[in-house]
Amino acid sequence: MEVSVLNIKGQETGRKVTLNEAIFGIEPNDHVLYLDVKQYLANQRQGTAKSKERSEISGSTRKLGRQKGGGGARHGDINSPLLRGGGRVFGPTPRDYSFKLNKKVKALARKSALSYKAQENAIVVVEDFTLEAPKTKEFVNIAKNLKVDGKKSLFVMSETNNNVYMSARNLQNAEVMEASLVNTYKVLNADVLVITEKSLETIDGILNK
Predict the structure, then answer these.
(1) Which residue, of 13, 86, 122, 156, is most buried by count of CB atoms within 10 Å of its CB?
(2) CA torsion, ordered 16, 167, 130, 20, to nearest 10 deg
(3) Residue 158: what pLDDT?
(4) Where does the chain have alpha helices with state H?
(5) Are 131 and 185 within one domain?
(6) Could you tell me if 140 and 153 lie in one domain?
(7) pLDDT of residue 199
């Protein structure tokens, strides 16, 4: 699949790049996509939710009433979950939600996500660029020139570029990410991928093994 290379003004440079069929042209595997997205979201969870159980409540352990003859149900101490202010039954406790996925599964998931974007013609290849200073207005103009403004876009850079990152940081529908850090969730969550030429080489080097 050939894609024209654009400059930051949205004009064709006259060059074309061929997207690697082994990465951008495979039959997507929906199950591994599900697993990889599930792992990513699970890893974002803090797992710090906690409620106090009966043994952790600060209160007297004195038996409230006698065992029999009260005319109602038996009562223990005031920390009972049945009473207001008592402990909680089977409440949440701190836990680790993360789980392991094999490297080959994660690689297949990223290839599947990229292949979906290629099928949707949602990949824009732009020549490598940088900004002299962090300017959101300048970044917005680039997005407009590439006709991705108003869409949820993921700009994939070949290396860390603080000026470009800072320029896009306040924009709700734009995100800048280094090519080596691109993951399945970010690709699927974006409406369009804007990839620089060198980023394609980085992605090929990582996934084409």
Answers:
(1) 156
(2) -30
(3) 87
(4) 21-24, 30-44, 103-119, 136-145, 162-168, 184-189, 197-207
(5) yes
(6) yes
(7) 92
Question: Rounded to whole angstroms, what are the CA distances from 108 to 4, 9, 102, 160?
Answer: 26, 34, 10, 25
Residue 72: which pLDDT band, with cuts at 50, 70 and 90? Answer: confident
* 30-62: b (≥16 Cβ within 10 Å) or e: eebbebbbebbeeeeeeeeeeeebeeebeeeee
Handedness of CA 64, 66, 67, 68 (dihedral sign): negative
Q: Which of 96, 128, 160 is the last residue of a domain?
A: 96
Q: 177 near 155, Cβ under 8 Å?
A: yes
Claim to verify: residue 31 and residue 60 sit in the same structural domain = no
- CA 142-148-186 angle, 5° bins: 105
> Which range has the worst mean pLDDT, 13-17, 37-41, 136-140, 141-145?
13-17
3-state class (DSSP) for residue 195: strand
pLDDT digits (tens, 9 = 90+) for 144-182: 999 998 899 999 998 888 999 999 998 999 999 999 999
* DSSP secondary structure letters along 112-137: HHHHHHHHTT-EEEE-----SS--HH
Is there a contact between 150 and 173 (Cβ–Cβ < 8 Å)? yes
In whole angstroms, give the CA distance from residue 80 to residue 36: 42
Which neighbouring-strand residues pair with 127? Answer: none
